Amino acid sequence: MQDVPPSRAFDGGAQCQLPRLRRAAPGTEGIGAGPGHGQGQGQTGQQLTLSTLPANTPNKVTIVGVKGLQSYEPNPINIKVGDTVTWINADVVSHTVTSGKDYDPNKSGKLFNSGGILTNGVYQLKFAKPGTFDYFCLFHPDMKGQVIVSK
Fold this sequence. Notes:
This protein is mostly beta strands and 151 residues long.
C-alpha cells in the first residue's frame, strides 16, 4: 500500500479515508481482475462519509451491529458483474468488511479489506467477476456477510 495525497483520493485505486488516504498497488482493477496475491490485491474500494454519498446509491448494505448473520443487511446481497456495493456503518462502533469466512492470517483480506469503518462511514467496492464472496468484521469475527455476483 502507498500513501495517496488527498487531492488524488478518487483516481480509481483502492482507498480508505484514514489520516491519509491509501490505495492498493497499481494494476489492481477490481475483485478477481488480477492474480490477487497479498492483502489488498485485487480490490477497487474506497471509504467515504455518509454526507458525500448520493441518496439514490444502489446496492447498499447497512452494518447494523454485532448480530451474527444479521449484522449486515441485506445478507446476502445479490448483484451483477460490474456493480458496486456500498456498506454504510449505522452502528456506534467501528467495523470492517474483510474478505473471508473467518479470521485466517494467511487468507483473510486477500481480496478486499475496508479497514475500520467509523460510525456513519461508507465503504464502496466494485465487483468485476462473478462468484460468491464471503466477508466478515475483523473486530467482531461473528459478523458475517456475503456478496453473490452473477453475470
